[in-house]
Amino acid sequence: MKFFAILLLFVFVSAAGAQTLPTSFSELSDSSFAAAAPTKSRRPINPEYAAPVVMFGLGLLANNSHKLHHLNKQIRAEVLEDKNRRVNMKIDDALQYTPAEAVFALNLLGFKSRNGFMDRAFLYGLSHYIGKTTTDNLKGISGRMRPDGSDRRSFPSGHTTTAFAAAEFMRLEYRDASPLFGISAYAIAATTGALRIYHNKHWFTDVIAGAGVGILSTDLAYFLYPRMKRFVHQSLKINTQKLQLSPVYQSRTAGLSLIYRPDK
Predict the structure, then answer these.
(1) Residues 131 and 219 sit within 8 Å (Cβ to Cβ)
(2) pTM to 2 decimals?
(3) From CA 153, how far away is CA 202, in angstroms rounded?
(4) CA distances (Å), 128 to each of 54, 63, 72, 78, 225, in order?
């Protein structure tokens, strides 16, 4: 299993490399957007996006690359060689959301996040929507067979997309508190991806691509949200400061309620 372990380490290192890179679209805030003057100059593409774009690209090339196809087969063969392999899908299902849950839990424990509760909830919701929509559409278009032959929805890995979107969410919210939060979240996300391969539900390149989609989904959410919030405030004349997001639980169903309190 040495080769498999090295490749999993590559997944974690590639994704966690974003920890040391400079600012990105997600660094834009309402104030910076409002203060920015129209300009004809084009901003250079930030190198922070290089890793997830390359990871997604590798996944796309897998069907047309003999080397990547062989790599997928080799990793799967090594996984299946383990006769004591135990399959427990519940672990995958739980881990994919753990970094996002930790973002809200850490705030309750006194750690200061970048955004307030409502903004965090909307940001994660938007990120999750972008990632899930992108992944579902790609699964339908690609039609790649899963390693276990169960269906043709292998590319990209949805669990890995969700996990890495949540990991990037953690990184951006607590990057000023400590880089350890982001690194830990990426380690959990990489473990989720590794388990999808270990459980024979995805090829290695499915997981690589899913990680790229997840990271980019969160970065795109942080880029879009300030503009959406500004539009609501200026165009629809809704004061976003008077919006309140509250958890609700009724008839054994949990959810969130959005309340707007206008001026009396």
Answers:
(1) no
(2) 0.82
(3) 9
(4) 21, 27, 27, 32, 13
Q: Are 194 and 172 in contact (CB under 8 A)?
A: no
pLDDT in tens, 232-249: 777 766 665 666 555 554
Q: What are phi and psi of 221, to 5 degrees?
A: -65, -40
d(CA 40, CA 43): 9
Question: pLDDT digit string (tens) for 34-77?
Answer: 433 444 455 555 667 888 898 999 999 987 899 999 999 999 99
- Whose tokens are 């979240």? That residue is 185
Q: Residue 70 contacts by C-beta under 8 Å, 6 or more apart in sequence?
A: none
Q: What residue ranges do the domains of the chain occupy?
A: 51-260
